[in-house]
Write the structure tokens for this entry.
Amino acid sequence: DGGITQSPKYLFRKEGQNVTLSCEQNLNHDAMYWYRQDPGQGLRLIYYSQIVNDFQKGDIAEGYSVSREKKESFPLTVTSAQKNPTAFYLCASSPGTGNEQYFGPGTRLTVT
Amino acid sequence: AQSVAQPEDQVNVAEGNPLTVKCTYSVSGNPYLFWYVQYPNRGLQFLLKYITGDNLVKGSYGFEAEFNKSQTSFHLKKPSALVSDSALYFCAVSSMFSGGYNKLIFGAGTRLAVHP
């Protein structure tokens, strides 16, 4: 997990509230990613960014938003439009094309 | 469709025995292949990757994997399992035609249980 921090580790919210998950990296990586992990489904890509001020939707972007104003930071907002937000969220970064991704420790979000 | 299959939800092996965790893929173009390991409530840790070259790649903690192009497989292996190897293992692939080499497609994961 070294070099990538996610906070908080656990997050609880009421239904209908937006919530922002933090992801910071000090690895000087250009690319950053957000994944959602649900039991038995592996990881699904929400958004990714290959450079500052640019990002692309992944496979399950609906109900989520991101920003990439700084190289080190890639926060994810889970909006009230996301129908099933309770999940384990993982942030990752990579130095570039074809390289492995480095993952943060994750944030477990519970919405009731 | 581009995909990764890990056909076994769980693999059980006795400590000291060899282990294999299976992975097959379906992508267009030349694949980049990766194995990651996840311990409970933690992020994923990179184990090894195949980009090009020798089909047998060696990685962290004594793991290795063999790329088989004809069978579109990339099975993870270790000669002698340890109880501490018990974890969730993910295979992942990227290719130029599956959204680019930056975009990984993950399998559903295989839980490895090593018994003393």
User: Anything to note?
Assistant: Chain B touches chain A through 23 residues (CB under 8 Å). Chain B has a mean pLDDT of 93. The CA atoms of residues 38 and 44 of chain B lie 5 Å apart.
